[in-house]
Amino acid sequence: MSEGFRPLVPHGSAYASPPRRRDRHGRGVRGPLMPPALPGWRTRAERFDDAVISTLEHLERHLGPELKDVEVAVEEVPPSDPAPWETGAVPLGRYFASDPAAGLPHRIVVYRRPVIARSEDESDVGALVRDVLVEQIAHMLGRDPGDVDPTYRD
Questions:
Q1: What is the CA radius of gyration of the chain?
Q2: How far apart are CA 151 and CA 110, in angstroms?
Q3: Are strands 93-96 and 106-111 parallel, antiparallel or unpaired?
């Protein structure tokens, strides 16, 4: 066998060589650039998802079983074809009614980039996410947003 020949074996095998962490000249990154304990470890998208999840947990404690069959998703941007009632501004979120015939539950989508673009700073993102979710849930339940969450700001 030649010196550079390495047989193909699964990584879980005892014979597999460990994956390279550095480039072939030994000058690659040696470890993580930022420890997981620092806030910069999480990406902006992950922090946005955390804001959506924490808001939903707060609303579930307040509303209880009314939110059990609701799916919530986060997308980067809204589709390029707006709904007929959406004129002018870019939507921050959308509510899609359930379709029992197709087996689809109620769905709420929050659009990350428009929400971030309208926020002044990181702390404002959480408040705007809460407002978007409260408005969409109020639309779904046919109630006033102030009834869904008393801390809702007009």
A1: 23
A2: 19
A3: antiparallel
The residue extents of the domains of the chain are: 44-81+89-148
For residues 122-126, give the mean pLDDT.
87
Among 45, 47, 48, which Cα is nearest to 129's? 48
Q: Is residue 110 within 8 Å of 133, Cβ to Cβ?
A: yes
Name the pTM for this structure.
0.71
Separation between Cα atoms, residue 80 and residue 134, nearest integer Å? 24
Strand partners, 2: none
Domain 44-81+89-148, second-level architecture: 2-Layer Sandwich (3.30)
Contacts for 149 with CB less than 8 Å, ≥ 6 apart: 58, 59, 62, 130, 134
